[in-house]
Amino acid sequence: MTGPLASFALVVGLLTLTPGLDTALILRTAALGHRRRAWGVVFGIQAGTLSWGTASAAGLTVLLTASRLAYETLRWAGVCYLLWMGVRMLRARHAPAPEESQSPAGAGNGGGWWAGWRRGLLTNLLNPKVGVFYVAVLPPFIPAGAPHLAAGVLLTSVHVAEGLLWSTVLVAFAHTLRGRLRRPSVRRLLDRITGLAVLGFGAKLALGE
């Protein structure tokens, strides 16, 4: 598995570094000072990635490519979710942010870890392109004769590990800017930018691009 692991790590590493919806959500959440929630988003996204990879290795996500109805149902669920999330960000209102260290657990941090985890997980699971990616990319990296499910989970774990490493960089970078982003006007601007980006991803998914 050494050769396939290295090759797969390179492919998904490049994918991880490519800016996308996951990057926007992590940066926005961490930059607003919601560090606990940002980590919830990170682990939610990676839980979704592990779910898609495991399902692909087990052959479940073949349904997305074999059944047009299954793919379209999941795609439009994802579109609705992204549009709803984008509109909420555009309409968000912010009061001056309290210091996180002076806030009780779960307060002043955007809803806490679990709220972030749910958002990250749903954002990932409602994107059928992630499932299609694994259906197309995972099988060629599994050596002949290797246990399909175990090898698939191992390869997916490499993707998850790289995602966690890159997310650590993103959260740390955004956290250094937190002091400059505590003003409500700046926080609203960040929400507007991220909200428009999320709406753009939703529109792109709706158009099937």
TrEMBL record:
Organism phylogeny: Bacteria, Bacillati, Actinomycetota, Actinomycetes, Kitasatosporales
Bilayer topology term: Multi-pass membrane protein
One Gene Ontology cellular component annotation held by this UniProt entry: plasma membrane
Protein name (database record): Putative LysE family protein
Presence of the UniProt keyword Cell membrane in the record: yes
Compartments, as annotated in UniProt: Cell membrane
Coiled coil ranges: none
Major subcellular location class: membrane
Transmembrane feature ranges: 6-27, 39-63, 125-142, 148-177
